[in-house]
Amino acid sequence: MSPKAQRLYSLDALRGFDMFWLIGGGYFIIALSKLPGADWLEGIALQMKHVPWEGFRFWDLIFPLFMFISGVAIPFSVQSKRSKNLTNSQLLIKAFKRMLILIILGILYNGIRNGFANARYTSVLGQIGVAYFFAMLVYIYFNLYKTRLIVLVCILAGVAVLQLFVPVPGIGAGVLTPEGCINGYIDRMLLPGRLAYGPDGMTSGNGIYDALGLLSIVSAIGITLLGTMAGNILQKEKNSGYKKTMILCVTGIGLIGMALILSPFYPIIKNCWTTTYNLLAGGVSFLLMALFYLIIDVWKYQRLAFFFMVIGINSLFIYLFIRIVPIDNIVQFFIGWIIELIGETNQVIKAIGNLTALWFLLYFMYKKNILIKV
Fold it and tell me: What angle do CA 178, 173, 259 make, to 5 degrees?
């Protein structure tokens, strides 16, 4: 059966929108901003880079949005598998296997360059896998929506209590800096291998914490659970498309409001995944889900979303592909002479070439009904 016949159109499109920036959309905006007379784009280009520590930019949304989307898919996946008479235990075993595969792929993605003792064991894929497994666990064994909400609140409140009130030896409590945050203390005590982030809040050879560390993983379960709640909203057949959109919007605005109210004394920090960061990223994710659902599934403008849907259907494949395959070299081989002739716009042409090559590869897979997932 075709992948496009099995999936929620807006969910694939939103996933594709998210991945678009990661596979070259962000680089394209940055390249455009460097053209003569394009100074007005510098503010937008800045949004294509992470905040070093405290604050929030568009690029800080990419990862949590993907986790939110994976959560949205859980209610639909469970409904589909239960219709095939799979038990809760079987569902959980599948999610557990998926988690293990993603953890292994994440370690391979990071690379084992200097032996296992110096490997980085945390990863984007590993965090997605762990958060998905525990969100699935909560979803299938806590049938009541209110019970899941209590679990979510406990996770977010628990992380906040640890970060604000539990002292780090020699530093104290609530010191939300790379050196002082309890995330790093837990990572240094419990994580094997290499910690990737240094005192400047950026990747460093002298790591003192990991932005994808243990407490960040626990916190990230929260945004995946938020996704399951969005999935529940979209699943309710008795509600009209407009009512679902309104509920998603109101929820998103409420979460953003809470994050902004709390942020003066509990900062929004991606690298230690504060609860305020969770709330803000979750709120924006709810609004984007509402927008995509309204346009694609309510108004039926599916052709407008086709570009992103092609990317979203094979998101795991393309994430690994751009890491393993030197797409820059391939594009340079075919159109390098054009890029050299263009002059000042060569980086823009290069970005367009990369995106075009990747999209047509994914389009080929789409047409052939090739769907790679775990």
Answer: 70
- Helix (DSSP H) and strand (DSSP E) numbers for the chain: 15, 0
**What is the C-alpha to C-alpha distance for residues 242 and 233, in angstroms, rounded to an integer?**
12
> Cα 259 to the chain's mean position, in Å?
19
Residue 305: partners with Cβ closer than 8 Å, 6 or more residues away: 9, 10, 13, 16, 292, 295, 296
**CB burial string 285-319: b at 16+ within 10 A, e below:** bbbbbbbbbbbbbeeeeeeebbebbbbbbbbbbbb
Per-residue pLDDT of the chain (374 residues; tens, 9 = 90+): 334 434 589 999 999 999 999 999 999 999 999 888 888 999 999 999 999 899 999 999 999 999 999 999 999 999 999 999 999 999 999 999 999 999 999 999 988 766 777 788 999 999 999 999 999 999 999 988 889 999 999 999 999 999 999 999 999 999 999 999 999 999 999 998 888 888 876 665 568 899 999 999 999 999 999 999 999 999 988 899 999 999 999 999 999 999 999 999 999 999 999 999 999 999 999 999 999 999 999 999 988 899 999 999 999 999 999 999 988 888 887 777 676 667 667 888 889 999 999 999 999 999 999 999 88
